[in-house]
């Protein structure tokens, strides 16, 4: 789904184009309206816009001036100019500046539709470009990724000295130690048939992210074969001063908007070009280097708990939501290699693989002491997950904890093994239940908000802000969970409210239209009749 913004200072033109484009059934477009260039800039600051359909002559700011602002914020955005007066010089300037088309209003709806389809095709072609893979091959190196991984892991585990500009320069990391940064964590859900050579595509995924975040100071590291971390900052000003000095600066506002808005493009390109399912979680606030370890653990936890089916997620983590705060760094398990593998299987929800791995590990030691080391390594890992789940639910099963951490309480190795497996099964079941519950709560929250704000802003961008999800992911998640589209739910809610107001009040048609979110009574009439085969007035008389 692409987002299209219509910009014109004539309200009837914007509303007419909105209705016309909304009728193009085979194009999945999320439509937005702006009745002035300033309003358009507000939308561009809030969310990623893929296509802009704009008038050229507008008071306060011309379409060409708006084009420059769009290019600075969303360089991949396609711009279509629509004007009532043909001026060859203006048209040439628009095309040279990167607009995809220049149309006269007198050319009609078909010309506008063709231009929109042309813009959509151009966006599709960009994501399918093999240039991403070519760049990935060029940027791969033998040693630097390993150095980057070791360094970042030491930072996340609080084992590294303080981050300095000298160290960053030594590792060719284009970030500043004295600046805040925006962390983003990605997870690749590899297909079952993926081989070792396929795993090299991790570099291609990182390169795709680097291409999209090219306007920013960007650094990424793959921590294992499933997870990668991206760190982003605004570029320093040309005069050498730090653009990220203050969190509330314009540079940071643009950076946060760009980073969050571009997540869906990265995910979409990975799916189309690499055939890989990628999930991403981004922190909505810039953080200091010293807080990165705790923030990373909290974001990783958000990715583990997930929503829906837990694949192709686009999540935002907000430290201020519901009193949430960055977690303390987790202690390293006693058996690092063993625990790291089992922890990964726990995080991925791979219950059968986890059971197989536990059986394999516990069958290896012959001596009781060695078995005890393995047992307590696994038990410690499960204890961390168990107590975390109990803390979230407010429950505490002291008996279960005592039994888990007391190897001598079991009559045999097999009995001890079965307890480990039962505990793991309980953790998987609890996590799945929590995931389902959280998803249902999110859908319920959306429905309540929609019905309480039928006359207000119910754009996908606004709804995504309510639940802290990327707009594209919210659309996919909603359809995945309900089988329908958010736009259809909103339309049905408006129809139901309109029927209620028509039968229980004496409000005029234009007053009802305004209450349920229609710009004009004419649009409301057409919308109502299309669904019920009656005009609002005919429905009122019949009832």
From TrEMBL:
Which residue positions does the secretion signal occupy? none
Q: Which residues form the HTH araC/xylS-type domain?
A: 444-542
> Which terms under GO biological process does the entry name?
phosphorelay signal transduction system
Swiss-Prot/TrEMBL keywords: DNA-binding, Phosphoprotein, Transcription, Transcription regulation
Please name the PROSITE patterns in this protein's record. HTH_ARAC_FAMILY_2, RESPONSE_REGULATORY
What is the top-level taxon of the source organism? Bacteria
Q: Is Transcription regulation among the key words of this record?
A: yes
CDD domains membership: REC_YesN-like
Instruction: Kindly list the positions at which 4-aspartylphosphate occurs in this protein.
Output: 55
Per its record, what are the GO molecular function terms? DNA-binding transcription factor activity; sequence-specific DNA binding
Quote the protein name from its UniProt record.
Response regulator
């Amino acid at each position: 789904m692409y987002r299209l913004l219509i910009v014109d200072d004539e309200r009837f033109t914007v509303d007419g184009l909105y209705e016309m484009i909304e009728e193009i059934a085979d194009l999945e477009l999320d439509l937005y309206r702006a009745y002035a260039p300033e309003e358009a800039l507000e939308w561009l600051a809030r969310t990623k816009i893929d296509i802009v359909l704009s008038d050229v002559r507008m008071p306060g700011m011309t379409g060409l001036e708006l084009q420059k602002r769009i290019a600075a914020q969303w360089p991949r955005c396609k711009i279509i100019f629509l004007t009532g007066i043909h001026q060859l010089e203006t048209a040439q300037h628009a095309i040279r500046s990167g607009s995809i088309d220049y149309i006269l209003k007198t050319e009609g709806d078909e010309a506008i539709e063709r231009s929109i389809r042309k813009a959509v095709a151009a966006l599709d072609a960009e994501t399918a470009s093999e240039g991403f893979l070519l760049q990935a091959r060029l940027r791969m190196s033998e040693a630097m990724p390993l150095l980057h991984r070791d360094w970042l892991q030491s930072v996340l585990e609080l084992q590294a000295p303080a981050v300095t500009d000298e160290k960053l320069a030594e590792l060719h990391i284009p970030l500043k130690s004295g600046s805040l940064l925006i962390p983003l964590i990605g997870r690749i859900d590899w297909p079952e048939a993926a081989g070792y050579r396929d795993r090299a595509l991790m570099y291609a995924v990182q390169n795709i992210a680097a291409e999209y975040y090219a306007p920013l100071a960007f650094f990424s590291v793959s921590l294992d074969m499933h997870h990668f971390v991206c760190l982003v900052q605004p570029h320093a000003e040309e005069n050498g001063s730090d653009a990220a000095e203050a969190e509330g600066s314009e540079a940071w506002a643009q950076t946060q908007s760009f980073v969050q808005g571009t997540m869906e493009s990265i995910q979409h390109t990975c799916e189309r070009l690499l055939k890989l399912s990628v999930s991403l979680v981004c922190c909505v606030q810039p953080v200091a280097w010293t807080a990165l370890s705790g923030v990373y653990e909290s974001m990783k936890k958000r990715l583990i708990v997930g929503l829906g089916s837990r694949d192709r997620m686009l999540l935002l983590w907000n430290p201020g939501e519901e009193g949430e705060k960055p977690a303390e760094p987790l202690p390293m398990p006693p058996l690092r290699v063993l625990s790291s593998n089992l922890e990964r299987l726990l995080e991925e929800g791979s219950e059968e693989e986890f059971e197989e791995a536990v059986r394999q590990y516990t069958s290896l030691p012959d001596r009781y002491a060695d078995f005890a080391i393995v047992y307590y390594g696994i038990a410690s890992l499960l204890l961390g997950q168990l107590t975390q789940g109990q803390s979230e639910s407010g429950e505490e099963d002291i008996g279960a904890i005592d039994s888990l951490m007391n190897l001598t309480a079991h009559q045999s190795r097999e009995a001890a093994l079965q307890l480990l497996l039962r505990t793991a099964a309980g953790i998987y079941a609890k996590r799945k239940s929590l995931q389902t519950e959280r998803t249902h709560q999110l859908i319920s929250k959306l429905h309540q908000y929609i019905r309480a704000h039928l006359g207000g802003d119910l754009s996908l961008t606004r709804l995504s802000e309510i639940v802290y999800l990327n707009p594209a992911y919210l659309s996919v998640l909603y359809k995945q969970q309900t089988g329908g589209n958010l736009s259809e739910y909103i339309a049905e809610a408006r129809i139901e409210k309109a029927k209620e107001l028509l039968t229980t009040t004496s409000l005029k048609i234009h007053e009802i239209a305004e209450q349920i979110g229609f710009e004009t009574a004419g649009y409301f009439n057409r919308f109502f009749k299309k669904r019920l085969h009656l005009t609002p007035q005919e429905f009122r008389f019949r009832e």
